[in-house]
Structures are given as structure tokens and as C-alpha cells.
Design goal:
Elements (H helix, E strand, L loop, with lengths): L8 E4 L5 E6 L5 E8 L14 H8 L11 H8 L3 E6 L4 E8 L3 H13 L8 H17 L1 H13 L13 H4 L4 H11 L5 E7 L3 H11 L23 E7 L4 E9 L7 H12 L5 H9 L5 E9 L2 E11 L4 H18 L2 H18 L3 H15 L4 H10 L3 H9 L6 E8 L18 E4 L5 E6 L5 E9 L12 H8 L9 H11 L2 E6 L3 E9 L3 H13 L5 H18 L3 H14 L12 H6 L2 H11 L5 E7 L3 H12 L21 E5 L5 E8 L8 H12 L4 H9 L3 E9 L6 E8 L4 H18 L3 H18 L3 H13 L10 H6 L3 H11 L5 E6 L15 E8 L2 E10 L4 E5 L7 H11 L18 E2 L17 E2 L8 E2 L22 E2 L6 H5 L1 H4 L13
Parallel strand pairs: 2-6, 7-11, 13-17, 18-22
Antiparallel strand pairs: 1-2, 3-5, 3-6, 4-5, 8-10, 8-11, 9-10, 12-13, 14-16, 14-17, 15-16, 19-21, 19-22, 20-21, 23-24, 24-25, 26-28, 27-29
Length: about 1000
Amino acid sequence: MRFPQPTATVHHLPNGLTVISDVNSSHPVVSTQLWVATGSLHEGDLLGSGLSHFLEHMVFKGTTNFSAEELPRIVQASGGHWNAYTTFDRTVYYIDGPSSGAERFLEVLTDLVFRAKLPEEDFEMERDVIRREIDMGADDPDNAAMQLLLGTAFRIDARRHPVIGYRTLFDRIKHEDLRNYYDRRYVTNRCHLVISGDYDEEKMLAKIQELTADLVQGMANEPVVPQDPAQCGMRIGHQAFAVATAKLTLAWKVPALGHPDAPSYDVLAAMIGQGQSSPLFHELRETRELCHDISAWCWTSNQGDGLFAVSAECPVEQIDALKAGIKEIFSSYAEQASEKDMQRAIRQMTLSQFRSLTSASGRASDLASNWHEARNLRFTGAYLEAANQVTLTDIRRCLGTLEDRVLTETLLHPLESKVAASESTLQGRMAHEEWQMENGIKAAIFPESQVPLVSIQLAVRGGLSADVLEQAGCSALLAATITQGTQRRNARELYEALESLGASISAQVANNSFLLQASCFRSDLPEVMKYLAEITLIPAWDEGAIERERASLIASVEEARQQPVSLAFLNLRSLLFGAQGYGLPASGSAESLAALTRDDLMAMHQKLFHAKNICIGIAGDIDARTTRALLDEYFSSSAKDIPAFAPSASTLHLGTSTTTILEKKQAVLCLGYPGLPTTDERRYALAMLQEYCSDMAGPLFIRIREELGLAYQVGATQFLGHDAGMLAFYLSTSPEQLELAQAEMLQVLASIHSTGIPEDSFEHVRATVLSSLSLQAQSPGSTARNAAIQMLYGQPADHHRRIHQNILALTPADVLMIAKELLQHAPAVSIVQPQWRTPALMPTPRPKKCALSMRSGNQRRWIGTARASHNAVILHSRGKRPTSPEARQFWQQKHGKLQVENPSPHRPMERAPFSWIPAAPFTNIGPSAAAPIFAKPQEGLLRARWFVISSKHSKTLIANSAAMAVSISPQPSPALFKSYPRISALFHTSIIALSLG
């Protein structure tokens, strides 16, 4: 039976709009559809945000000719039914209704698509609506199963992202993004309008031309839509979800829609798995009762590889048997397939297409889809004709391509279920399994069979964030002693057993977690798992071991306090976070360590080491089923009734400073800014910012080390906190260059705050970040550690495998945004330096004089002279104190008293004007502060023809170095220092005075 050929006609308007007209007077109805060739695939830099779908919502908020309130009233008054939808590659607006409303429908459609106002006042409200839609989708198991399938089957193909977008990316859309996208994509040359039904074609075409006469076509450039490379191995994705039964999908990659075999795969799907008489349904559901429902389907498009899939719902305990049954039927069907089965399938396909032609809406959709996919209105008929030509040989050939190499297996299983994974013969990295044990422990397994090694990483929520001031270092001492034997074997027995296997178990404490790490050969995993469980759950708490490790830690603490860099960072954290959490020394102090008891360690262990506070990641050459059984055997006894540890909130103290004198040769400066929480999606942008500031090609290194030679080392570091982390910048320099180096660092940071990462550097930084991630992720230990920590923070265990995608999605604007947010704050400043001394061979400069005068309008009155002494600038006047109250206040604040002498008249040697600006407040200017310098003079200030720069030790008077007005406040700006290195080189320890005009 031949599919009827369409009689529709195609009309290309001068402005680029394509009109497809399909007159059918069988019923007095009409369907009008306006297809925009843009969808989630075309979002470019905003891929994954759901921008196309957001725009679909916003166009209904009013147009040039109709308000948001008028639009539905007009459509309803004309008897219309309207809606819209967005897919990967299209956004479609349609109105169906009586023929009498056709012109009105066209007016509304063309206004919606081409004249939408996109009012900014409705932006946030509609965003909230879509947030609810995203939440609804997240609760829908069918939607979750499909997203799991696409996200697993495709690697870089844009179809792996949900059309509606990810919530975190969606929240970052700005109104200008929406407007720019609309202007680029909603243009006539990317649209085709279809009208099908009972109407006068000539009159309707004239109406369309009238409605679109003012429109012009848009630019022809299209975003690059990435295509997946060839799949080289089986892919597996499992996800726990609130479902009663498991949803299993086995999907194989098949060619795109234009491939000659595309119709054969459609026929095969109908033969093997559509209808109650199909082998899959009859054998696996009806006969073996392995599932509640099962069907096969084929999805192809012109956007890249398609999928041939089998989807089923079944009890968890039947999953393995069902998968085996599906593969068994596929293996035998090549011999069992019959001509009768094939004709049944073709007939079903043809009947389904015929049904679509029974309505104006169906006809319009078929025509529009044909044009969109193939630019051929007869494509459906041609496709069905090709399907009728399919032979059993074609079916068997296509069936033979459905091999494990191109297979993707996904499983949506109940939250509390135990899902056993099938063994795989794949080599290299494989898909992971993630689940929660009955007692609450979260676990994940990552098979990586490159080498016969296994790594186990056990992460416990706590670490430094669990310490308190009185017991600082408790976590560190716990980490040092927990591996020193168990209640079943002493330390020597434990280490002999491990070392005889070539295995190891160690512990460490971090900012937010406590980590136990084990490594062994695959054959020794059962024994090492047993030892790890003993260490975790029943440590020995040997008094002798505690005393030994306590003494070792105290020695380490004392040594760290003699290292300038370590001490500077210890002080910085204490300054920024106070005497709690991250502000405590990770290893404690000598006093706090000495006070810790065995009971303190046992109490800390009881608080942290229980099921709901533990996550375990295992990676390497493992058998999934055996490994899960080992975890159940050895860790099921962990207490499950204790709530997970919740750290106290952090309080940041910004704009503070401290200076510590340490008699070393170097001086160290650390600047601390707020960081981000562990789960903040902006952490990827922050990683880019940190890399930019740490790299040898970055601005800090280039300016401070390469151009000025001021620092031995300079860079940036950060850590993520449970609620707030820290971003820090540091340098190590000579004491006499510290203040200049600090000023230069502040200047570079001010530039980064304003501009972020320049366009010409952004890709270089990205490449460095990505390569670092790749290098760090090579070992099973890294995989297991990432998995355990991600689960600890509520992230999927395989989140680290998607970090590359998150980094690739970043734009310079993302990094600039985080730079502006974090670097806008006044930093906490930690300085460690020696007591600076004037070199013995350098003669002490003799104090010099200068003249001071007061300017009021055009009148200038000389008030005296100033002399630089060892610790102060001494003001001189003609028998009286200086007439400037600001000057008197400033010097009294700095020196406690004002020294006055009766000088003889002194004639200025230079007449260049200078401004002495005693701007308040000055109280923070001192050894540890450095303050911004503003380039604009202030009114009502004391002006001098000379100015004095003096510090505690430089005893230097400078005259006529520049003609520039500045002021001082608690944070000096580096602008002056950059232009006048001679002046900045004099700064040391504390600024006594700076006056330039």
C-alpha cells in the first residue's frame, strides 16, 4: 500500500521565510504551524542552559501588536488551540482551530516568533515557572531514564544535555542572553510556516506576505554542533531513583536518518519488540515473566548517530536474567526472523503514518517535519517505500551490527535496591556503580582493569572542620594513630600482614574530611578489605602509639612555625576564620596536643566514624559483585543510628592584618579572600582563576617575578569549604622589597578584578586546567578518592568524570563574574618577616629640611619646615604648632606627639607643587597594611612645595619626584608604585607620610 503523495506547495518569500501551503477542504479546520530551526543544540556557549526552551516561554509574554493578556483572548475568541514545544533542533509554535480563524492565527504566530517583546520585568517570574518544570521533570522516572540513556550513550554530542537545561546553568541565564539569542535565531531564513486545512490559498499567501513584509533575513552563520566520535566500547550508567521497579534500557548506536539502512533498523525494531506477538514481549514477559513491560524502538535523526533500543520495566532481582534473555533473543533472531514478521512490521509502520494524515494538525506536522529533516515534502512516502524494500538479508545484517562495542546499558533502579552488575570483558575504564548500603554507607565501584591493582578510599565527613579550639589537632592525632593496630591485631602484626602482601593502608586529615586509603593487588582485596574495616571500626587506641604520635606531631608543629610560608598561611587562616574550623592549625598547637587524651580520640572517632558519615570509593581491577559482597561483609556492622556530622558555620574576618617577626632571610606575604563551598557550581570558574594567577605565564608571575624581580615565588591557592572556602595569593620576597611587592600584587589583583582572564589567554588557561585534571585522574587511587569525596558532598560518584565538560563550558564572563565577587573584598593580610635592619655598610642618611606652606585659593602662606628623623617627620613652624589640624591629627595618631622647633627661614629649592593628604583613617596604616592610593586630589588639604616620605628605618626625605596628587587609606592602590618605583622602593615596615601634588 503506497503512502499518498502530498499536494502541498512550497513558497519562498523574498525575506527568506519559507511557506508550505496544504489546502484540504475535507473539514472546515486549519492548522497553522511556525517552525524555528533552533533548539537546544544551537545554544553555543550556553549549551545545557535550556535557553531555547526559556525563550519559547518568554515569547508568550507579549509582542509588538499584542500584550500578554490579549494573546490568549484573541486565540480563544477565534476558537484556536495553541501551544509550543522545543526539542534538540527545533522550536515549534502552532494554533489549530476553525478555518474562520486562520488569518487571526497567522497574525498571532508571526507576532510571537518575529515581534516578541521579551519584557525584562517578566524574566524572573518565568524563570521560576521553568524551575518548577525542571523539578517536575526531575521527579518523572521516564524523563530521568531517558536523560540517563542520552547522557550515557553520547559523549560530546549536544543531545546528551536535557532540552530544558540543567538547573545550575539555567539559573545563570541573563536577560541579555535571551535577547541576543532571539535576535540571532528567530529570523525568517531559519523558519518555515506551514498551513494545512480549509482556506483560500491565494488569499492566505497574500496575508502571510503582508504580515511579514517588514522582516529581513538574519545572518547565515550557524553554531558548530559537535558530533560524537565512533563508540569504541560498552557504556554503562546506573542511577538510583524513586521507582518501584527498575527501568532497564539497552541501546545500540545506529546510523543517522539519511543512511540507507535507517529504514531497516525501524523495521527490525517493529519485528523484534513491538506488539504483544513480538519475541521480546511474548517470550520475556508472557512466558518467562521476567518483566512487567518491554518493547523495542528506534530513534534516528539527521543530527548524528541514532539509537536502536530495548526498554523494559522489571523487578530488581530479575535484571540479570532479563538482560541475558534479551541478548539470547537477539542472538537467535537472525535464524528465526521470517518474512511474515517483516511484513507485519512494515504494515504497522505504514498504518501509523496513515493515521497521522487524518487531521490537519497531523498533515501540517508531517509536511513541516519532512521539510525540516530533508527539505523534501515527500520524505515520509519515500522512507516508507524504502522500508517496503527491506529484505531479511538487510534485517540480519543490521542485527549483526548490534554488538557490545556500540552498546549502552542504563538502569534506573529503586533507591534502596542492591543492583548487581554484570561482569564485563572490557579493558580499561568502565562505567561505575553507585549505591547506598543498608546501614547508610555510600559506596561506588569503578572497574579499571589496565593493571591488576585496586585502590580503596574511605572518606569521613569531618577533618579540620570537626576540631574545636580546646582540642585543636585532635583530627590530626586521630589520623596518626588510627592505623596503629586494631582490637584484633597489634600494629606490628597489622603492618607485617600488609607488607607481606605489598599492600598499604594510610590515613590523613583534610579541611572537610578524614581519609583512609588502601592499595593492593586484586587477588589480595578480600584480606586488605578486612584490615581496612578493622582500622575503621575497631582501632586499638594503644596508649604507647598515642604518645609516640603526639610527640611527633608536636615536633612537626614547632618545625612548621619556623617556616615562613607555613607560618604565614597558619596566621592567614587564623586571621580569616578566627579561632574555629578552618582557622585552627590543622596539626594543633603544642599546648592543645599535649592536653589531648585517649578518651578525646575515642570521642572524635565515635562522632565521625559511623555509617551515615562514611563514603567508600573503590577503583581498579575488580569484580563488581565480589567487591560489593566484601563491603557488605566487613562494613555492615558500622553504626547506622548516628546522624551525619554537620560542621559549624564559618565566619570570615576580612580587612584584618597581622605581622609576625621571624628571623629568616625572606619575607612572606599572604592575602586571603573568600572562597566557595564544595558544591558551588562556580568552583570551576574559580579553578580557572586560580590557575591563571598561579601559572608561570600568569600576570602575577610575569609582573612581580619576571618584570620587577621582586619575588622568589608568587602564586595563588584555594580550598573549598563546607560553606565558605579561601582564595589566597602569596609571595616570598626580600624584606626591603616587601611593600613594593605587596603594592604590585594588589595592582595585578585589581586588574584581574576588573577584566578577569583576557580572551587571548583564556584558552591557554583552560588547556592547562584540563591537562592537570587529566594528569591527576590517571590512577585508580585518584578515581576512588574523587568518588568518595564527591559522594561525601552529595555529588554523584562519577562527577569528577564530568569536570572536563564543566571546564569546557566556561566563558571569560564566568571567570570575570567570580573574580568580581571574590576580589571585591578587602583581604586578610598575613606577613611574616625578619626585623629589618639598615645594612651596616650603608651610611645613615642625614636628616634634611623642607618648606611647608598652606594654600587657600590663590593665597599661599608659609608655615614652617619639616625634618625627617629616625622614626618620624618632625614638623617645624615659626614658634607655633602647624596651622593644619589635619596634619596635627595625623602625626599625633602616628607618633603620639608633635615635635616642634623654631627654625630659621628656609627658602624652597623647588617650586613644583605637592599635596600632602592626611586622609583619615590612618590607624590601619602600619607594618601589615597596605592601602590603595587614589589619583585624584582632595580639596581643603595642606599643600607643600616639598613632601616627605619616611619610614621607621629608611630615614629618607624626597623632594620634587613627581607632580601627582594622591591620598592614603587603609588599602593602598598600586597605581602610584607602578609609575614611581623610586618612591615605592622606599616603603618599608610602615608608611609615615606620603605627600604628592
